[in-house]
Amino acid sequence: MLIVAGEALIDMTPVAHNGGTAYVPHPGGSPYNVAMGAGRLGTPTAFLGCISQDAFGQRLRSHLAASGVSLEYVKESEHLTTLALVTPSESGEFFSFYCENTADRLLYPEDLPAALPANAALHFGSYSLVLEPGASSLELLMRREARRRLISLDPNVRPFLIPNREAYLERLLAWLEQVDLVKVSQADLEWLYPGADLESIAQEWKQLGPALVVVTQGGRGALAVTGQAVLRVQAPQVDVVDTVGAGDAFMSGVLSWLWQHGAWSRAALESLTGEQVTDLLNFAAKVAAITCTRAGANPPWRAELA
């Protein structure tokens, strides 16, 4: 089983309307998207987080359930749902978050499950590890479960919500010591390490603790740093409609590939061959590419990959 912990929000996505712009609500949030994507790919998945009881929260829960995701670890809140205003730009989408005192950041230590299933993997990521009090609660869970089960991380950096890059980076490096798998985008690394060689940074991250480090590069594909080599794959060529959620879809593809191939532990991750890691990257890239062909974070179902 995969348990995905973090935020659940509504992305307000712009569309042309009567000569102007209208905003259409789409369920989102990086961990939320990963959970939805993994569920659709047939991986037994549960979401762990705080979701509002408002109309948007009801929509968030129904989308998870419809994608085969368990709500066993969801806490309901009377606070409002976080909104993210999506603004397209030449370098990708820019997100403006309306998240003060909203439901998904109000996760407390007492809301965490006392125990998790023995075979469950955990995934963390994005601003849920930045905004308090939820960030400290999830860090507590990460430390508690480290080396007891497979743990993955996608920092999915949101500069708008990070007042101090150096302090955030110090915190992120501490997370790397706890996790077994990390996926990070080229854009994230360029913001964290301006002007640095990204492959060298990925190799440095590998030395801090993860058994596998994956760097996504948008239309250029992805690379992975293993214990033996740096492996690369190209991105499938598709007609791009929207890149929102593409990185999350890639992450759900990685985790689903690992589940389907029985590589559900750190030891199994470390034993993957170069051919297997390349297959993993190609599978995840295909999942992300299909997501880019439609609006909003709308990852594919398993049957669509055929």
Question: What would your notes on this structure say?
Answer:
The structure is a single chain. The chain has 306 residues and is an alpha/beta fold. The chain has one domain (2-300): 3-Layer(aba) Sandwich (UDP-N-acetylmuramoyl-L-alanine:D-glutamate ligase), CATH 3.40.1190.20. It is 34% helix and 26% strand. The strands form 2 sheets. It has a 9-stranded mixed β-sheet with strand order 5-4-1-8-9-10-11-12-13, sandwiched between helices. The chain has a 4-stranded mixed β-sheet with strand order 3-2-6-7. Helix 1 (30-40) crosses helix 7 and helix 7 packs across helix 9. The two termini are 24 Å apart. One of its GO terms (molecular function) is kinase activity. InterPro entries: Carboh/pur_kinase_PfkB_CS, PfkB_Carbo_kinase, PfkB_dom, Ribokinase-like.
Q: What labels would you give this structure?
A:
PfkB_Carbo_kinase; kinase activity; four-stranded mixed beta sheet; single chain; 306 residues; 9 helices; nucleotide-binding; nine-stranded mixed beta sheet; 26% strand; alpha/beta; ATP-binding; UDP-N-acetylmuramoyl-L-alanine:D-glutamate ligase; PfkB domain protein; globular
